[in-house]
Amino acid sequence: MATERKKSARSFAPGKVYLIGAGPGDPSLITVKGRALLEKAEVVVYDYLASKKLLAYVPKDAELIYAGKMGGVKHTHTQAEINRMLVEHAMAGKTVVRLKGGDPFIFGRGGEEIEELVEAGVPFEVVPGVTSATAAATYAGVPITHRQYTSSVAFVTGHEDPTKADSNIAWDKLATGIGTLVFYMGIKNLPHITQRLMEHGRDPQTPVLVVRWASTPEQRSVVGTLADIAEVVREANIKPPALVVVGEVVSLREKINWFEKKPLFGRRILITRTREQASDLVARLEDLGADCLEWPTISLAPPDSWAELDRELDRLGSYHWLVFTSINAIRFFFARLFEKGMDARDLKGPRIATVGATTAEELRAHGVKADLLPEEFTGEGLAASLIAHGMAGKSILIPRALKAREVLPEELEAAGAAVQVVPVYRNVRPEAKTDELRRELAERQVDVITFTSSSTVTNFLHMLNAADQEELHRLLAGVRVAVIGPITARTAEKAGLSINIQPETFTIPDLVESIRAFFAAGTPSAA
Ligand code: SAH
């Protein structure tokens, strides 16, 4: 059916091309309209500067085409090829999103691509984006206009060879005629650009700001004057993509700089959780300005067979308690429940317990309210709370990982319960990629590594594959170790790691707070 519909669409109407500005770097700076269109794209052609994280909004079956284009590096596709691709996919009836960094009509060749579409008769729309000039200034604490400093601003390409005789840029007018000047693609030519501006009368003491990877956790910025910024940039080894902001407004940065003052700005944190579970931890750390590297040491898979769970699902009514000790257990359990044509209504028999607040929340998302939540969010705490309800003669079902700590079932059995443990998922160790991990640690100056369970520790060390303690300490030199709780800490210590950060309660928000406090304590306070 679906193919038939598409075929007829092809013969009668072309699709449409949406030229969308992805924003400057932080994926959340895309417009609401841009994001909504990504969600219905069938083909996405994206650039080097458009955040890859935005691709998460694209439907799974959409075709993703990387169009490359990085200054100085060989282009993946020529502009002519990109234009042709857009026309062809649209002519085939597809909804095509052309995603570009910043704003598509600001030094993005968006105009050329649209002209091509017009000639081919392809319908299109253009969605503006936050251009990197405003983002870079804003995220470095500089308002690009300000009543007391300037009432004009110019966006200029720094790509043009400023030594060429027939320049398209009126340097004489630009130098003193405009208050704030923002140069895109200007790093390579910076010495020429500053030279030209000074030659044409701009004060050499004019403050200048250079920002690389603006609005991302990797943002770096430096300031100087027209006279010395080229040298400052060279010494700081600032590479493209970066923007150059020239003008008196730059002096406001001292007062306004906000993004770079976030408590974890510039801190690089390695996350070892499963990809499925990392998002909350990552979002919280990023909100504090940290740069998170996801390095999952665990991935999840269904059990080899569902036979055991299926059998228990058929006699759920005979259980007194159904106990969930992890979010993953809940997800896999419910996925199977639905697969069998059952749903939350079939859980009305047993009372339901969860190990902590997040598991309770996950359960609620599946339409079920937990009857019991322990005071202390550990297996021991859960056992104690259940035992307080009286376990003698009770039957308990615990769907969980194939291999897990035995504390809970053992304590409940000791208290007189009949406990049935059924596997609903398996933890699998992903491919080790030892060399890549070592390179990442060496090159990216990781500040903290986070361990949220004992298996993340064991699997991480397996991936790192150090020959002995000496090599282990060398590979992890300067890296602080953060653990979620005492059990993970013990595993890490046994393996020879020393713990730097550990929250008092074992939750993700508390782990994040401990990391923040650790760095706040280490930074000399202003007072
Ligand atoms: N259409 C884009 C600009 C493309 S030209 C926009 O509106 O932002 C490419 C240049 O943009 C880079 O060389 C760099 O100067 C600038 N740029 C893009 N993203 C940037 C970022 N996150 N940080 C600093 N500069 C950026």
Question: What does this entry look like structurally?
Answer:
- The chain is of the alpha/beta class and 527 residues long.
- It has 4 domains: 17-129, Cobalt-precorrin-4 Transmethylase, domain 1; 134-259, 2-Layer Sandwich (Methyltransferase, Cobalt-precorrin-4 Transmethylase, Domain 2), CATH 3.30.950.10; 268-298 and 431-520, Rossmann fold (3-Layer(aba) Sandwich), CATH 3.40.50.10090; 301-428, Rossmann fold (3-Layer(aba) Sandwich).
- 36% of the residues lie in helices and 18% in strands.
- The protein contains 20 helices and 19 strands.
- The chain has helices spanning 2-12, 32-38, 79-91, 110-120, 132-139, 171-177, 190-199, 229-236, 253-256, 275-287, 307-314, 327-339, 357-365, 379-388, 407-414, 434-443, 454-464, 469-475, 486-494, 508-522; strands at residues 16-21, 43-46, 63-66, 95-100, 124-127, 153-157, 180-184, 207-212, 220-225, 242-246, 268-271, 291-294, 299-301, 321-324, 351-354, 395-401, 418-428, 448-451, 480-483.
- The protein has a 5-stranded parallel beta sheet, sandwiched between helices.
- Strand 16, helix 15 (407-414) and strand 17 (418-428) form a beta-alpha-beta unit.
- Helix 6 packs across helix 7, helix 14 (379-388) packs parallel to helix 15 and helix 17 runs parallel beside helix 19.
- The longest helix is centred in the last third of the chain and has 15 residues, at 508-522.
- The model is unreliable at 1-10 (pLDDT under 50).
- The structure holds S-adenosyl-L-homocysteine (SAH).
- Residues 24-25, 49, 71, 100-103, 106-108, 131-132, 136, 184-185, 211-215, 240-243 line the site of S-adenosyl-L-homocysteine.
